[in-house]
Automatic annotation (TrEMBL):
Superkingdom field: Bacteria
Lineage of producing organism: Bacteria, Pseudomonadati, Pseudomonadota, Alphaproteobacteria, Hyphomicrobiales
Organism of origin: Microvirga subterranea
E.C. code: 2.7.8.8
Family matches, as Pfam families: CDP-OH_P_tran_2 (PF08009), CDP-OH_P_transf (PF01066)
Protein name in UniProt: CDP-diacylglycerol--serine O-phosphatidyltransferase
Length: 284
């Protein structure tokens, strides 16, 4: 019977099998940035309910900046992944849908009782729908190349930054109290509509080269804007919000113009020889 079950001695030189495959660092770095942004968004909720609205707003703005960085870093490092894309969408929903709405509810919308809470739900759900549509459109192979330079509806970070305009004005001395709650309610509903609408918003993703004589002025302007944003953060955020909302009609006009231009372009007609299933012409 001992021959039927011979003793098994493992080969000491045989390499051990790894339970998990190693993950490149270039894939981890963008996800770490996304998680830091998510921590900022969650911390902003705590700061708001402690009455510390200024650092809460700054946390959301920094989270929006990190959101614009993580995807670019992932593409630069060639570290894009399906996991990272899903994590980014979940973080965007919390940072730009849930957090700003809860901050505004704690700040002024709570004076409207149940109506204020309903608006909070509408804004958060609108953000979720906007992100779901964005993810679905990424897989559309028939989307024209020129349309990729436009967002469909207001993008998530812009929706969060613009939604906190009442807070910016309050920090600048404008009275935003219980009497202003209905105005904030209408404003937040308008932003929710912009996010779920099909209104094209210019994205600026396909900006290529700039003329050489514009390089130095762009450097100087960038430094000036950064300095103003650090020195006068809420004045600049108010200005940026107003300018962004004002550029939406310009983006729509540009989109309609490009749409008409591409609609007038002739569509190649398949000839009899090039039609599917047609026999090739005889060789000379």
């Amino acid at each position: 019977m001992s021959d039927l079950f011979p003793p098994f001695a493992p080969d000491p030189d045989e390499p051990r099998r790894r339970l998990f495959k190693p993950v490149p660092v270039r894939v981890i770095i963008p996800n770490i940035i996304t998680l830091i942004a998510l921590c900022l968004g969650l911390t902003a909720i705590r700061l708001a309910y402690e009455g510390r609205y200024e650092p809460a707003v700054i946390a959301i703005v920094v989270a929006a900046l990190l959101d614009g960085v993580d995807g670019r870093i992932a593409r630069l490092l060639k570290g894009t992944s399906r996991f990272g894309a899903e994590l980014d969408s979940l973080a965007d929903f919390v940072n730009f849908g849930v957090t700003p709405a809860l901050i505004l509810y704690s700040f002024v919308l709570h004076d409207l009782k149940a109506l204020g809470w309903i608006v909070v739900l509408v804004f958060a759900i609108a953000m979720a729908l906007r992100l779901a549509r964005f993810n679905a459109m990424l897989d559309d192979p028939h989307r024209p190349e020129w349309k990729k330079n436009f967002f469909t509806g207001m993008p998530a970070p812009a929706g969060a930054v613009t939604s906190m305009l009442p807070l910016y004005l309050s920090f600048l001395g404008v009275p935003v109290e219980a009497a202003a709650a209905p105005v904030v309610l209408v404003y937040l509903l308008g932003l929710a509509f912009l996010m779920v609408s099909t209104i094209p918003v210019y994205a600026g993703k396909n900006i290529g080269r700039v003329p050489r004589h514009w390089v130095l002025p762009i450097f100087v302007l960038s430094v000036a804007v950064f300095g103003l944003l650090v020195s006068f953060p809420f004045e600049m955020l108010t200005l940026i919000t107003v300018l962004f909302l004002g550029t939406i009609p310009l983006g729509v006009m540009r989109y309609r113009k490009l749409e008409r231009m591409h609609a007038l372009q002739p569509v190649p007609v398949a000839t009899e020889a090039s039609a599917p299933g047609a026999e090739p012409p005889p060789a000379a």
